[in-house]
Design a protein that fits this description.
Chain lengths: 113, 112
């Protein structure tokens, strides 16, 4: 059973804090993704990675960075959290580039106050 | 990314069929997907269709693809209360470097 695990279900952080969201997958997948989900906007891609130490910007990378030091772990970093980054964050992984399935974590609901 | 559009809400009576519609703009789409998100959970793949197919049936689910009109639909037969969720249409294609593009999601509410 494929597992994509996000380290926290709920987080509350203060404006200006540095925030780390962690994601781990156990299927040796090459590809990992970070999305944010907002009502009426669906899922928007923040960053993705096709291999260790590789990262590419998605559609809305501003205010975020990522780290992929190991194949199984993909971290999303908010360098200085702002209230407009309050959202649901979803991590996903997939086994190949043209894939039939991406597997999602359960999501982290981040509130920035 | 490429545009994927779907209506935001659908209300259906238990036992009836639900039809969720989606349109997309990427003419190079290779796969199209339907994901389901239950409250408080991540997304789970329901079904998918390859772009050279026009129909796929999987138990209560029927996917129809009109490639000419770039229209995708998901029909759920005999809708149950457990089908209440958000349903996301998504596609993957060459023009978006094979990254998944999602619609905004359709919230399906099943009423007794």
């Amino acid at each position: 059973d494929v597992k994509v695990t996000q380290s926290s279900r709920y987080l509350v952080k203060r404006t200006g804090e540095k925030v780390f969201l962690e994601c781990v997958q156990d299927m040796d997948h090459e590809n990992m993704f970070w999305y944010r989900q907002d009502p009426g906007l669906g899922l928007r891609l923040i960053y993705f990675s096709y291999d260790v130490k590789m990262k590419e910007k998605g559609d809305i990378p501003e205010g975020y960075s990522v780290s992929r030091e190991k194949k199984e772990r993909f971290s999303l970093i908010l360098e200085s959290a702002s209230t407009n980054q309050t959202s649901m964050y979803l991590c996903a992984s997939s086994g190949n580039r043209v894939t039939t399935e991406a597997f999602f974590g359960q999501g982290t609901r981040l509130t920035v106050v | 990314g490429e545009d994927v559009e779907q209506s935001l809400f659908l209300s259906v009576r238990e036992g009836d069929s639900s039809v969720i519609n989606c349109t997309y703009t990427d003419s190079s789409s290779t796969y199209l997907y339907w994901y389901k998100q239950e409250p408080g959970a991540g997304l789970q793949l329901l079904t998918y269709i390859f772009s050279n197919m026009d129909m796929k049936q999987d138990q209560r689910l029927t996917v129809l693809l009109n490639k000419k009109d770039k229209h995708l639909s998901l029909r759920i037969a005999d809708t149950q209360t457990g089908d209440s969720a958000i349903y996301f249409c998504a596609e993957i294609g060459r023009s978006n470097d094979y990254k998944l593009s999602f619609g905004a999601g359709t919230t399906v509410t099943v009423r007794a």
